[in-house]
Amino acid sequence: MIDYDIFEFKGKVKDKFENNGKFFVELEQTNFYPDGKGGQLGDRSYIGKAKILSVKEGDSRIIHEVDTLDVEENPICIIDRERRLEISREHTAQHILSQAFLKLYNIETVSFHMGEYYSTIDLNSIEIDDKKIYEAELLANKIVLENREVKKYYVSSQDLEKLNLRKKIDVEGSIRIVEVNGFDISMCSGTHVERTGEIGIIKVIKAEKTKKELTRIYFASGIRALKMFQEKTKIIEQISQMLTTGESELISKINKTINVNKMLSNINRSLEEKLLDEVIKRLSSEKIIKEVFENISRKGFEAMAHKLKNLGKSGFIVLMEKEKFVVATFNSVVTLQVKGYDINGVIFYTFDLNKKEEVLRELLEK
């Protein structure tokens, strides 16, 4: 059984072995929390001189993947305290956020996953709009700011009926309960804070529909949320400087820029179509087409190749791009010693620019 308050202990090696190039150590008794148990991340740090890479639980065993088998019989084991505290903040934050959706909208959490940078909960509804997310996030943070006690205790399976559990799971024996005082009571074996104020903040990042009937909520808490806020603030500042506008006017400026770009794109497309029509008129008098082009779109290039092919012309055209160039052959005996792709009778080949002289020489010699 994990002692949640111990961050350093003397272990006794029960087994150590190599499997598929990976190293593993099993202790007689461990205090390292396993990865994936209860949806949360596992502990890290050291067993003696061996760095822990992962902690897995299975078949009533807890196995530690390490970077070396150079481990003494009775190693000093150290748990990464900061990581454990970050995971505890994130796990308690999940309990609070899940209960907020349940209390406000009777929406239940069906699964929870904790990642290294953010976590997710899957909710059993797709009728979750921005207002509901905002209200649930607000309630969750009120609970954090009230600095409520987070109790952990064990009860028997018979005593479970007396508790107002958010979600009940059928288990036998002694059951660990995590209770956010006056707000949430859950069955949980995971790591948690002592008081909600330790979490700092709970921030919903985004929401998306998943599996047709669920909504996945992405969130972060504590230092994780702060780091994410700092990164996003820096990005917004950079965009604001690039567009020479204040942050409050960014959306308007971006929409205006998008609309201008669409207009310019339409103008450019129209001009390109006229240009390519003139080129096709010029080439219509040629028996064999051998032309190289720059500064036209791939779409325009492909359209021109098909028009020349449909006019019964034979030969090839080449489009020079920044890092590659494309060859299109049509109605032609010209073939290259590489595999091309056929689009409605036109064969296209793509090459790196360093092949330009070699390929053009081969084409011109045919």
Structure notes:
The protein contains 6 helices and 19 strands. The chain is α+β, with helices and mostly antiparallel strands and 366 residues long. Strands 1-7-4-5-6-3-2 form a 7-stranded antiparallel beta sheet. It has a 5-stranded mixed beta sheet with strand order 15-16-17-19-18, with helices on both faces. A 4-stranded antiparallel beta sheet has the order 8-9-14-13. GO terms for molecular function: alanine-tRNA ligase activity; aminoacyl-tRNA deacylase activity; ATP binding; metal ion binding; nucleic acid binding. InterPro entries: Ala-tRNA-synth_IIc_core (IPR018165), Alanyl-tRNA_Editing_Enzymes (IPR051335), Thr/Ala-tRNA-synth_IIc_edit (IPR018163), Transl_B-barrel_sf (IPR009000), tRNA_SAD (IPR012947). This is Alanyl-tRNA synthetase related protein.
Structural features:
366 residues, alpha+beta, Elongation Factor Tu (Ef-tu), domain 3, Threonyl-tRNA Synthetase, Chain A, domain 2, Diaminopimelate Epimerase, Chain A, domain 1, 3 domains, seven-stranded antiparallel sheet, five-stranded mixed sheet, 6 helices, 31% strand, elongated, Thr/Ala-tRNA-synth_IIc_edit, metal-binding, alanine-tRNA ligase activity, aminoacyl-tRNA deacylase activity
